[in-house]
């Protein structure tokens, strides 16, 4: 667990600074219920006054770690490769996995290695390396709350046509 003291006000100041510096800001979240192993992904992306919301799912026979990784992957796919990008995730596993551990892992033989490899591949396509940063979940941060709601909605979608083919909703 991170031991730093998080202050919502400091995050809001950071976001304002990033927006002034023309960053694209993304919040990602995954949702999965351990009992039925159904999951969903949510991405909230803000580029100036433009907002994109992605809700993807449900996925079957999955884990929360896969959903969190898939959310990062989808945010990277949505973003312009020529822009400065920061992605916030409330998953320490995902953030530390990408920023710290990946270089020392044998990803081809690791759980979720396929998603880590795909993320690393897309990260290399950006002109300016994206920043992937941890924020605590459920702290009233608007973007994180929106991504959480989108992931939850995707997981709870029970339409039969979603079961075999995950549905992607981008607003």
Could you describe the 3D structure shown?
- The chain has helices spanning 8-20, 64-78, 92-101, 113-123, 142-156, 160-164; strands spanning 24-33, 38-47, 50-59, 85-89, 131-134, 167-170.
- The protein has 171 residues and is α/β, with parallel strands linked by helices.
- A six-stranded mixed sheet has the order 5-4-1-2-3-6.
- The longest helix has 15 residues, at 64-78.
- The termini are far apart.
- The model is unreliable at 160-167 (pLDDT under 50).
Features of the shown structure:
171 residues, alpha/beta, 6-stranded mixed β-sheet, 6 helices
Short description:
40% of the residues lie in helices and 25% in strands. The chain has a 6-stranded mixed β-sheet with strand order 5-4-1-2-3-6. The chain has 171 residues and is α/β, with parallel strands linked by helices.
Count of discrete alpha- or pi-helical segments spanning 4 or more residues:
6
Instruction: Give the overall shape.
Output: globular
Order of helices and strands: HEEEHEHHEHHE
Please outline the major beta sheet: 6 strands, mixed
Task: Determine the oligomeric state from the structure.
Answer: single chain
Q: Major sheet: order of its strands?
A: 5-4-1-2-3-6
Radius of gyration: 15 Å
Q: Which structural class fits the helix and strand makeup?
A: alpha/beta
Low-confidence segments: 160-167
* β-strand amount: 25-35%
Mean pLDDT: 90
Number of strands: 6
**Helix fraction?**
40-55%
Distance between the termini: 34 Å
